[in-house]
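Next comes the chain:
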Amino acid sequence: MTFATNVVHDLGYAGVTLMIVMSQVVIVPGTEATMMFAGFNVDTHNLTLIGIIIAGVLGDVIGASVCYAIGYFGLHEVLARPGSPVHIDERKIELTHRWFERYGAPVVAVSRLIPVFRSAPPYAAGIARMPFPRFVAMATLGSAVWITGWGLVGDAVGSQWTQLKHHLDYVDYAVVAVVVLALAWWAVRVLRNRRAQAA
């Protein structure tokens, strides 16, 4: 979280966009904390509310588009291979594909308003070959509501950000722990596959 706040503080609107893109692709540091801190900068008159909303929506849509491209070009199949640091269940991919066929494009807009889950549907939309213009339109609609809401929350809490940031710093430690565990799991998986192939 400290990293995110420093990037926004140093780069301004570009920092907001960058951190929101990262939030979509790797899930951390999260759009919520980034927009709250950006909103705090509005309260201190370093940034404007309309500016952080535009920067946030831009980053959110770019990040979602990257996830869409991963699904569209079949890169999810690479992640499903044994030995990959990320394992994707092909059955879940098929279920997601049918889900989009059943409910259509509005699912994208609605999913952008659901914490944690909001990062998953863009991959599925790409896999389902949803037309990109339609995907961008729906993603932008949902992202605009989500980003505006968190920007307003950040602007409202204003000077209380220092106290909030103290508690959010624990997220930094959690992220580091998750990354270390993921790398360790991946290393063990690779070693086991190599041994199995050698046998």
Notes: Residues 2-198 form one domain. The chain has a mean pLDDT of 76.
